Amino acid sequence: MPLIPEEPQIHESAQGPRATPASGRTAPTPRPVPGPRPAAPPRPGHPGPARPMPPAQRTPRDAAVAPRPGPKAPAAPPAPAGPQVQLIPASAEGALDAAEEAVDLLLDSGRTPGEVLVITTGDPHPWAAHELSFGADAYWAQHDAGDDVFYADASALDRAGTRPVVVVAVNGGDEVTGTALPLALGRAGSLLIVCGEPQRINSLLGAGV
Q1: In whole angstroms, what is the distance from residue 194 CA to residue 118 CA?
Q2: CA dist., res. 177 & res. 164, Å (int)
């Protein structure tokens, strides 16, 4: 009689993992899966690897607007220059004629008669002597009007006013000339013309004339 194979018996020890732990034993706690390890802090004296800095973002406004220089301090105005001085060589006897020629050249160049004052250091100009014969008030009234060339003696420079051009005829009087020339320079607005002997004039005022 053939033998019938017996069904294999499944023992408890051969079964798979149990849903519940066996009595008297504790189920092991599942360990977490380790993630990426953080970078170790640098040791003192050993800095860690340098991290590249992101490039600075520059806006279009920053690129277009350039720094402007501050305002400059205004320049100091130049010192006012004195009148120009011209010397016309002439003898004491010919100084008055040289002064008359200088006046004619000034008028021909565009100067108006009221811009010119003529001073004599010696004998007065014939026009001045004539006008003074009518009285000092009428004479100085013509000066104040400023309509024509005015002729005056060097002794009257204290009363004479300023005009753009002053012509001095050195026709005598060394003492008067030494005082009159600086006063005439102060009355000249832009031009002083001195008619006389150069050595004599330079000895009175110096080589700067």
Answers
A1: 10
A2: 20
Q: What global pTM score does this model have?
A: 0.61
Euclidean distance between the first and the last CA atom of the chain, given in angstroms as a whole number: 168
Chain centroid to CA 74: how far?
4
> Nearest-CA neighbor of 91 among 169, 190, 20?
169
Task: Give the contacts of 114 (CB within 8 A, at least 6 positions apart).
Answer: 146, 147, 148, 149, 163
Q: Which residues of the chain have pLDDT under 70?
A: 1-81, 205-209
196 Cβ partners below 8 Å, 6+ apart? 87, 88, 89, 90, 92, 95, 168, 169, 170, 171, 177
Closest CA to 86 of 202, 195, 207: 195
CA–CA dist 194, 120 (Å, integer): 10
Whether 143 contacts 94, CB under 8 Å: no
Q: Are 196 and 169 in contact (CB under 8 A)?
A: yes
Judge whether 176 and 202 are in contact, CB under 8 Å.
no
Cβ contact 94:119 at 8 Å: no
Tokens of 135: 């009285």
Q: Cα–Cα distance between 95 and 203 in angstroms, integer?
A: 17
Predicted confidence at residue 75, as pLDDT, reads 62
CB hemisphere CA count around 108 (13 angstroms)? 6
